């Protein structure tokens, strides 16, 4: 078995004084780092002790001592001081947890898991901060006090948090509100939006007042400070798995051991120096291995680049062939496009001339039709006016007729009333005659009464004469009214006949106008159909022109693709040239680094010097490990100074310290040959 020996420069090995100085500097740095943490931890413990003492005092006072009225203010002040101390303690613990979490995450340089202790302690402290000053809500089951209630408000205030709420609700393992709140915090930290969501809550303190007391941490300035500290956690990448963890039954206890560091002893410093030397040795070994790996990787890359270069050349040849075929197609398409354009231009010109002629004829016919239509429309308006006037006259005649009928009815009523009065007067006359007869019989008895009666009779006769003259006058009036009624009836009949004749004439004219309108409508329909056919032809020609335009655009796109392919070809050629130059430079750097490493090794050998083993110290061959005997003799290697058997040291080479070729072991022989070959190259 062959052993690889690696030589370390003496300058790289630290001295004892340097190790001591390094140990002192490390101790000083650790003291600087741990001093503020220790002071903060002491303050937190003292504040916690004071807060617990005050709480016990207040409990004892509430439970057993009857307080007077004057002690209410003191109790309130003690409660306020207690809450202020709790807020200060929680804020200090949050600062510590965030600081340790960021420092540990940056030192690790990777994504954090849920098992990382500083991350667990951060969530515990944050949970205590969110629980501070929560109001107790009474339900049918009992009292409920969880911090998931205010976190649910974030979904309403910030719609981006709806994904977190839905994913938390869909987790079947979570059965309590505390578990849901912890899962919500995990997801918000993974999204790097925990500080933003809590800031949204603090901006809406009127909604938080439903869940928190007025002196709670989230309602005071300490909440804003904590949100500002949480912004620094956006640097950390966390990958937390929620499926396998039992978030409902976790106990949130703060572990202060993470924030306290003990100083190391002097013995540990010495061990640290030895470990530093060993670490340097391992570092050099890893460097050598890394260089060998990089050489192999570079060779692989060179092979890959050669393969890719050959592939790119093949693709370039294919692309050039394709470009030639595309250029031929482009020329053919150009010729076809020119032919199509000429045909389309000719067809467009012919159609334009036809359309112009048709439009002129259409305009002339339309003008004649418009004139005819305007004349007919004027005649219609005049006839409508005449018809309205006749209807008005008819209405007036009908009104006169109704008035005459009403007047006749009134006259008939007057005549009937007068006839009744005549009948009554005749009856009165008969009664008067009877009375006169009786009075005549009685006149003989009393002359005085006769004279009076004769006077009364004379007066009655005068009245009867007046009544008779009035009756004659009324009869004459009746005769005149009947004559006027007959004349009015004759006039009405004449007017009806005239109106009927005029209506017949109007109907005939209306029928003629309707026939003219129907003919005009037919002509308009035919013209519309002709216009639609013309429009269809125009649309077809437009479609043909659009197709030609699309073909032109496709030709332009093919030209652009050709230009892009040419640009890509030039870029690929540039990349190939740059990669070849880079490979040449890498090869030069590698050869230079190998020469430098060999020179460093030679210098180290010259500085260190080979240890010449004594014959008594070696009992076995260093290479094959066979025991020396009388037949198997000992031989020194003139390069490394170790003892080998004849078979393992049968090689001879010329060394700079010896004038003639000297015995060398197999390992030194191979190393020296490789060095000579590299120097010659």
From TrEMBL:
Q: Which residues form the RUN domain?
A: 113-245
Pfam families hit by this protein: FYVE (PF01363), RUN (PF02759)
Q: Which residues form a coiled coil?
A: 288-346, 464-589
Record flagged with keyword Electron transport:
no
Q: Does the keyword Transport apply?
A: yes
InterPro entries recorded: FYVE_RUFY1, RUFY1-3, Run_dom, Run_dom_sf, RUN_RUFY1, Znf_FYVE, Znf_FYVE-rel, Znf_FYVE_PHD
Against SMART domains, the record matches this protein to:
FYVE, RUN
Q: Which UniProt keywords apply?
A: Coiled coil, Endocytosis, Endosome, Lipid-binding, Membrane, Metal-binding, Phosphoprotein, Protein transport, Transport, Zinc, Zinc-finger
Alphabetical list of SUPFAM superfamilies matching this protein: FYVE/PHD zinc finger, Prefoldin, RUN domain-like
Q: Which GO terms describe its biological process?
A: endocytosis; protein transport; regulation of endocytosis
Membrane-topology descriptor = Peripheral membrane protein
**What GO molecular functions are on record for this protein?**
lipid binding; zinc ion binding
Q: Give the highest taxon in the source lineage.
A: Eukaryota
GO cellular component annotations, sorted alphabetically?
A: early endosome membrane
Q: Where is the FYVE-type domain?
A: 615-673
Question: Where is this chain's protein located in or outside the cell?
Answer: Early endosome membrane
Q: What does this protein do?
A: Activating adapter involved in cargo sorting from early/recycling endosomes. Regulates retrieval of proteins from endosomes to the trans-Golgi network through interaction with the dynein-dynactin complex. Dual effector of RAB4B and RAB14, mediates a cooperative interaction allowing endosomal tethering and fusion. Binds phospholipid vesicles containing phosphatidylinositol 3-phosphate and participates in early endosomal trafficking.
- Subunit description: Self-assembles through coiled coil domains to drive ELVA (endo-lysosomal vesicular assembly) formation. Interacts with BMX. May interact with SSB. Interacts with RAB4 and RAB5 that have been activated by GTP-binding. Interacts WITH RAB14 and RAB4B (GTP-bound form); the interactions allow endosomal tethering and fusion. Interacts with ARL8B (GTP-bound form); the interaction is required for RUFY1 endosomal location and promotes interaction with RAB14.
State the name under which the record lists this protein: RUN and FYVE domain-containing protein 1
Q: Which gene encodes it?
A: Rufy1
């Amino acid at each position: 078995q062959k052993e690889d020996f690696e030589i370390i420069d003496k300058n790289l090995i630290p001295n004892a004084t340097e190790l001591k100085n390094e140990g002192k500097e490390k101790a000083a740095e650790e003291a600087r780092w741990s001093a503020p943490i220790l002071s903060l931890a002491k303050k937190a413990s003292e504040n916690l002790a004071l807060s617990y003492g005050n709480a016990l005092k207040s409990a004892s006072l509430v439970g057993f001592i009857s307080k007077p009225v004057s002690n209410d203010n003191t109790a309130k002040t003690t409660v306020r001081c207690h809450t202020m101390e709790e807020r200060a303690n929680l804020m200090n613990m949050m600062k510590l947890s965030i600081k340790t979490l960021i420092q540990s995450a940056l030192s690790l340089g990777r994504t954090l898991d849920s098992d990382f202790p500083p991350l667990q302690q951060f969530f515990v402290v944050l949970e205590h901060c969110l629980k501070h000053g929560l109001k107790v809500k009474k339900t049918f089951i009992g009292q409920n006090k969880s911090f998931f209630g205010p976190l649910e408000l974030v979904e309403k205030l910030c719609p981006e948090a709806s994904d977190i709420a839905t994913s938390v609700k869909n987790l079947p393992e979570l059965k309590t509100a505390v578990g849901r709140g912890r899962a919500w915090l995990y997801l918000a930290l993974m999204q790097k939006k925990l500080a933003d969501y809590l800031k949204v809550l603090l901006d809406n303190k009127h909604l938080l007042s439903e869940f928190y007391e007025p002196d709670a941490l989230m309602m005071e300035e300490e909440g804003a400070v904590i949100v500002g500290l949480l912004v620094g956690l956006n640097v950390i990448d966390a990958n937390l798995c929620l499926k396998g963890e039992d978030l409902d039954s976790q106990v949130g206890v703060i572990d202060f051991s993470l924030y306290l560091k003990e100083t190391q002893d002097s013995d540990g410093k010495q061990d640290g120096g030895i470990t530093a030397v060993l670490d340097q040795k391992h570092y050099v070994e890893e460097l050598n291995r890394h260089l060998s790996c990089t050489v192999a990787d570079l060779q692989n890359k060179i092979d890959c680049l050669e393969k890719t270069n050959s592939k790119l050349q093949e693709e370039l040849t294919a692309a050039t062939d394709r470009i030639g075929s595309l250029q031929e197609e482009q020329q053919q398409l150009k010729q076809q496009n020119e032919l199509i354009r000429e045909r389309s231009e000719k067809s467009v010109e012919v159609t334009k001339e036809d359309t112009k002629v048709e439009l002129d004829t259409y305009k002339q016919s339309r003008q004649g039709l418009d004139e005819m239509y305007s004349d007919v429309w004027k005649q219609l308006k005049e006839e409508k006016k005449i018809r309205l006037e006749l209807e008005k006259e008819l209405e007036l005649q009908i009104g006169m007729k109704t008035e005459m009928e009403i007047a006749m009815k009134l006259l008939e009523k007057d005549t009937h009333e007068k006839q009744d009065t005549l009948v009554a007067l005749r009856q009165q006359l008969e009664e008067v005659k009877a009375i006169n007869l009786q009075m005549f019989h009685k006149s003989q008895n009393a002359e005085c009464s006769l004279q009076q009666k004769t006077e009364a009779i004379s007066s009655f006769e005068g009245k009867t004469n007046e009544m008779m003259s009035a009756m004659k006058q009324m009869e004459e009036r009746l005769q005149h009214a009947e004559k006027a009624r007959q004349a009015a009836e004759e006039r009405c009949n004449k007017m009806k006949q005239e109106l009927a004749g005029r209506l017949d004439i109007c109907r005939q004219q209306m029928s003629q106008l309707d026939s003219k309108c129907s003919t005009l409508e037919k002509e308009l329909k035919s013209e519309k159909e002709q216009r639609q056919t013309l429009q269809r032809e125009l649309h077809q020609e437009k479609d043909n022109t659009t197709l030609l335009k699309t073909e032109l655009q496709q030709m332009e796109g093919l030209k652009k693709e050709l230009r892009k392919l040419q640009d890509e070809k030039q870029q690929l050629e540039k990349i190939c040239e740059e990669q070849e130059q880079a490979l040449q430079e890498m090869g030069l750097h590698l050869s230079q680094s190998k020469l430098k490493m060999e020179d460093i090794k030679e210098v180290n050998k010259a500085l260190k010097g080979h240890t010449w083993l004594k014959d008594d110290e070696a009992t076995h061959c260093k290479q094959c490990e066979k025991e020396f005997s009388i037949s198997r003799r000992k031989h020194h290697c003139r390069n490394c100074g170790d003892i080998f058997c004849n078979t393992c040291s049968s090689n001879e080479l010329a060394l700079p310290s010896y004038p003639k070729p000297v015995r060398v072991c197999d390992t030194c022989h191979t190393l020296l040959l490789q060095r000579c070959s590299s120097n010659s190259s």
